[in-house]
Amino acid sequence: MVRSYTTEPVDPAVLDRVLTNATRAPSAGFSQGWGFLVLDTPADVRRYWTATADAIDEPDQWLRGMMRAPVVVVPCSSKAAYLRRYAEPDKGWTDMDEARWPVPFWHMDAAMASLLILQTAVDAGLGACFFGIPPKRVWPLREEFAIPDAFDPVGAITVGHPAAERGAVGSPSRRSRKEVTEVVHRGNWGVDGRDPG
Ligand SMILES: Cc1cc2nc3c(=O)[nH]c(=O)nc-3n(C[C@H](O)[C@H](O)[C@H](O)COP(=O)(O)O)c2cc1C
To answer: In terms of CB atoms within 10 Å, which end of the chain has fewer, N or C?
Structure first.
Protein backbone atom coordinates (compact mmCIF):
# COMPACT_ATOMS: atom_id res chain seq x y z
CA MET A 1 0.00 0.00 0.00
CA VAL A 2 1.30 3.42 -0.99
CA ARG A 3 0.25 6.32 1.25
CA SER A 4 2.19 9.18 -0.33
CA TYR A 5 1.84 10.37 -3.92
CA THR A 6 3.09 12.99 -6.34
CA THR A 7 0.47 15.25 -7.90
CA GLU A 8 1.16 13.82 -11.38
CA PRO A 9 -2.17 12.82 -12.96
CA VAL A 10 -3.01 9.22 -13.74
CA ASP A 11 -3.25 8.46 -17.46
CA PRO A 12 -7.00 8.13 -18.17
CA ALA A 13 -6.33 5.00 -20.27
CA VAL A 14 -4.63 3.38 -17.28
CA LEU A 15 -7.52 4.32 -15.02
CA ASP A 16 -9.90 2.78 -17.56
CA ARG A 17 -7.87 -0.44 -17.44
CA VAL A 18 -7.92 -0.40 -13.64
CA LEU A 19 -11.71 -0.10 -13.65
CA THR A 20 -12.23 -2.63 -16.43
CA ASN A 21 -10.15 -5.16 -14.53
CA ALA A 22 -12.21 -4.51 -11.40
CA THR A 23 -15.27 -5.71 -13.31
CA ARG A 24 -13.45 -8.99 -14.06
CA ALA A 25 -13.41 -9.97 -10.39
CA PRO A 26 -15.25 -13.16 -9.49
CA SER A 27 -18.65 -12.72 -7.85
CA ALA A 28 -21.08 -15.08 -6.16
CA GLY A 29 -23.65 -16.26 -8.70
CA PHE A 30 -22.05 -13.75 -11.07
CA SER A 31 -24.16 -11.22 -9.19
CA GLN A 32 -21.69 -8.38 -9.83
CA GLY A 33 -23.43 -6.43 -7.12
CA TRP A 34 -20.77 -3.80 -6.98
CA GLY A 35 -20.47 -0.16 -7.99
CA PHE A 36 -17.44 2.12 -8.10
CA LEU A 37 -17.57 5.82 -7.37
CA VAL A 38 -14.59 7.23 -9.29
CA LEU A 39 -13.18 10.64 -8.41
CA ASP A 40 -10.47 11.76 -10.79
CA THR A 41 -10.52 15.55 -10.86
CA PRO A 42 -8.85 17.74 -8.23
CA ALA A 43 -12.23 19.21 -7.32
CA ASP A 44 -13.91 15.83 -6.85
CA VAL A 45 -10.97 14.42 -4.90
CA ARG A 46 -11.15 17.48 -2.67
CA ARG A 47 -14.86 16.83 -2.13
CA TYR A 48 -13.96 13.28 -1.03
CA TRP A 49 -11.55 14.46 1.64
CA THR A 50 -13.81 17.28 2.79
CA ALA A 51 -16.61 14.78 3.33
CA THR A 52 -14.54 12.11 5.06
CA ALA A 53 -11.54 13.63 6.85
CA ASP A 54 -11.02 15.90 9.83
CA ALA A 55 -8.68 18.84 9.55
CA ILE A 56 -7.93 18.79 5.85
CA ASP A 57 -6.34 22.21 6.24
CA GLU A 58 -3.92 20.85 8.85
CA PRO A 59 -3.39 17.30 7.61
CA ASP A 60 -1.23 14.82 9.47
CA GLN A 61 1.44 12.90 7.57
CA TRP A 62 -0.98 10.16 6.47
CA LEU A 63 -3.59 12.59 5.21
CA ARG A 64 -1.03 14.86 3.52
CA GLY A 65 0.35 11.97 1.48
CA MET A 66 -3.04 10.48 0.67
CA MET A 67 -4.70 13.77 -0.31
CA ARG A 68 -2.17 14.24 -3.12
CA ALA A 69 -3.42 11.13 -4.91
CA PRO A 70 -5.13 12.29 -8.11
CA VAL A 71 -7.67 9.45 -8.04
CA VAL A 72 -9.94 8.07 -5.34
CA VAL A 73 -12.17 5.07 -6.04
CA VAL A 74 -14.92 4.10 -3.61
CA PRO A 75 -15.93 0.47 -4.17
CA CYS A 76 -19.47 -0.22 -3.00
CA SER A 77 -21.44 -3.41 -2.51
CA SER A 78 -25.14 -4.13 -2.77
CA LYS A 79 -26.58 -6.80 -0.47
CA ALA A 80 -29.93 -6.40 -2.22
CA ALA A 81 -28.37 -7.34 -5.56
CA TYR A 82 -27.27 -10.69 -4.09
CA LEU A 83 -30.59 -11.43 -2.42
CA ARG A 84 -32.32 -10.69 -5.73
CA ARG A 85 -29.87 -12.69 -7.80
CA TYR A 86 -30.17 -15.75 -5.56
CA ALA A 87 -33.98 -15.58 -5.71
CA GLU A 88 -33.74 -16.25 -9.47
CA PRO A 89 -34.87 -19.70 -10.68
CA ASP A 90 -31.36 -21.19 -11.09
CA LYS A 91 -30.60 -20.44 -7.42
CA GLY A 92 -34.09 -20.60 -5.95
CA TRP A 93 -33.61 -18.81 -2.63
CA THR A 94 -36.94 -17.06 -3.04
CA ASP A 95 -37.27 -16.44 0.71
CA MET A 96 -34.34 -14.01 0.41
CA ASP A 97 -33.39 -15.12 3.93
CA GLU A 98 -30.21 -13.43 5.06
CA ALA A 99 -29.44 -16.43 7.28
CA ARG A 100 -28.37 -18.16 4.06
CA TRP A 101 -25.42 -15.79 3.98
CA PRO A 102 -23.20 -16.45 7.02
CA VAL A 103 -20.45 -14.69 5.09
CA PRO A 104 -21.44 -11.45 3.32
CA PHE A 105 -20.42 -12.34 -0.22
CA TRP A 106 -21.45 -8.88 -1.41
CA HIS A 107 -18.59 -7.38 0.59
CA MET A 108 -16.24 -10.19 -0.41
CA ASP A 109 -16.85 -9.57 -4.08
CA ALA A 110 -16.28 -5.83 -3.74
CA ALA A 111 -13.05 -6.70 -1.91
CA MET A 112 -11.96 -8.99 -4.75
CA ALA A 113 -12.63 -6.20 -7.25
CA SER A 114 -10.66 -3.88 -4.97
CA LEU A 115 -7.67 -6.19 -5.10
CA LEU A 116 -7.79 -6.13 -8.90
CA ILE A 117 -7.77 -2.32 -8.74
CA LEU A 118 -4.68 -2.45 -6.51
CA GLN A 119 -2.90 -5.03 -8.63
CA THR A 120 -3.67 -3.31 -11.93
CA ALA A 121 -2.36 -0.05 -10.52
CA VAL A 122 0.86 -1.71 -9.40
CA ASP A 123 1.24 -3.46 -12.78
CA ALA A 124 1.02 -0.02 -14.42
CA GLY A 125 3.81 1.31 -12.22
CA LEU A 126 1.45 3.25 -9.98
CA GLY A 127 0.77 2.99 -6.26
CA ALA A 128 -2.52 2.48 -4.49
CA CYS A 129 -3.91 2.11 -0.98
CA PHE A 130 -7.13 0.56 0.26
CA PHE A 131 -8.31 2.26 3.42
CA GLY A 132 -11.32 2.49 5.67
CA ILE A 133 -13.91 5.26 5.80
CA PRO A 134 -14.60 6.47 9.37
CA PRO A 135 -18.12 5.29 10.31
CA LYS A 136 -19.37 8.79 11.10
CA ARG A 137 -18.22 9.94 7.66
CA VAL A 138 -20.16 7.39 5.64
CA TRP A 139 -23.36 9.45 5.63
CA PRO A 140 -21.61 12.68 4.64
CA LEU A 141 -19.92 10.72 1.84
CA ARG A 142 -23.24 9.26 0.67
CA GLU A 143 -24.84 12.66 0.65
CA GLU A 144 -21.98 14.43 -1.08
CA PHE A 145 -21.87 11.96 -3.96
CA ALA A 146 -25.49 10.72 -4.04
CA ILE A 147 -24.55 7.10 -3.33
CA PRO A 148 -27.84 5.18 -3.41
CA ASP A 149 -29.17 3.50 -0.23
CA ALA A 150 -28.85 0.09 -1.91
CA PHE A 151 -25.06 0.43 -2.06
CA ASP A 152 -22.64 0.45 0.86
CA PRO A 153 -19.11 1.81 0.51
CA VAL A 154 -16.69 -0.92 1.64
CA GLY A 155 -13.73 1.46 1.84
CA ALA A 156 -11.80 3.69 -0.51
CA ILE A 157 -8.74 3.36 -2.72
CA THR A 158 -6.25 6.08 -3.60
CA VAL A 159 -4.39 5.65 -6.89
CA GLY A 160 -1.46 7.69 -8.14
CA HIS A 161 2.26 7.95 -8.71
CA PRO A 162 4.21 7.03 -5.58
CA ALA A 163 6.21 9.89 -4.05
CA ALA A 164 9.92 9.37 -3.48
CA GLU A 165 9.50 9.83 0.27
CA ARG A 166 7.46 6.95 1.61
CA GLY A 167 5.12 9.02 3.78
CA ALA A 168 3.18 7.34 6.56
CA VAL A 169 4.31 3.76 7.01
CA GLY A 170 1.87 1.00 7.64
CA SER A 171 1.56 -1.80 10.15
CA PRO A 172 4.27 -3.98 8.51
CA SER A 173 6.81 -1.56 10.01
CA ARG A 174 5.59 -2.61 13.45
CA ARG A 175 4.80 -6.29 12.99
CA SER A 176 6.27 -9.11 10.98
CA ARG A 177 4.70 -11.19 8.25
CA LYS A 178 3.45 -14.53 9.53
CA GLU A 179 5.30 -17.57 8.26
CA VAL A 180 3.41 -19.73 5.81
CA THR A 181 3.77 -22.62 8.28
CA GLU A 182 1.93 -20.55 10.94
CA VAL A 183 -1.17 -20.09 8.83
CA VAL A 184 -1.31 -23.19 6.65
CA HIS A 185 -2.89 -26.22 8.29
CA ARG A 186 -2.37 -29.30 6.19
CA GLY A 187 -4.84 -32.12 6.63
CA ASN A 188 -5.98 -31.03 10.07
CA TRP A 189 -5.94 -27.70 11.87
CA GLY A 190 -4.85 -28.62 15.41
CA VAL A 191 -2.84 -31.64 14.32
CA ASP A 192 0.02 -31.14 16.76
CA GLY A 193 -2.34 -30.78 19.75
CA ARG A 194 -1.44 -27.15 20.45
CA ASP A 195 -4.06 -24.44 20.73
CA PRO A 196 -4.33 -23.34 17.10
CA GLY A 197 -4.86 -19.73 18.16
C1 LIG B 1 -9.59 -4.14 4.60
C2 LIG B 1 -8.37 -3.24 4.68
C3 LIG B 1 -8.45 -2.03 5.34
C4 LIG B 1 -7.33 -1.20 5.42
N5 LIG B 1 -7.46 0.03 6.01
C6 LIG B 1 -6.41 0.88 5.98
C7 LIG B 1 -6.56 2.20 6.49
O8 LIG B 1 -7.63 2.60 6.95
N9 LIG B 1 -5.49 3.03 6.43
C10 LIG B 1 -4.30 2.64 5.89
O11 LIG B 1 -3.36 3.44 5.85
N12 LIG B 1 -4.13 1.38 5.40
C13 LIG B 1 -5.15 0.50 5.42
N14 LIG B 1 -5.01 -0.77 4.90
C15 LIG B 1 -3.69 -1.19 4.39
C16 LIG B 1 -3.04 -2.16 5.37
O17 LIG B 1 -2.55 -1.46 6.48
C18 LIG B 1 -1.90 -2.88 4.64
O19 LIG B 1 -2.42 -3.63 3.56
C20 LIG B 1 -1.15 -3.83 5.55
O21 LIG B 1 -0.56 -3.12 6.60
C22 LIG B 1 -0.07 -4.63 4.80
O23 LIG B 1 0.80 -3.74 4.13
P24 LIG B 1 1.06 -3.88 2.55
O25 LIG B 1 -0.30 -3.97 1.89
O26 LIG B 1 1.77 -2.61 2.20
O27 LIG B 1 1.87 -5.12 2.37
C28 LIG B 1 -6.10 -1.60 4.83
C29 LIG B 1 -6.04 -2.83 4.16
C30 LIG B 1 -7.16 -3.63 4.06
C31 LIG B 1 -7.06 -4.94 3.29
So the answer is: C
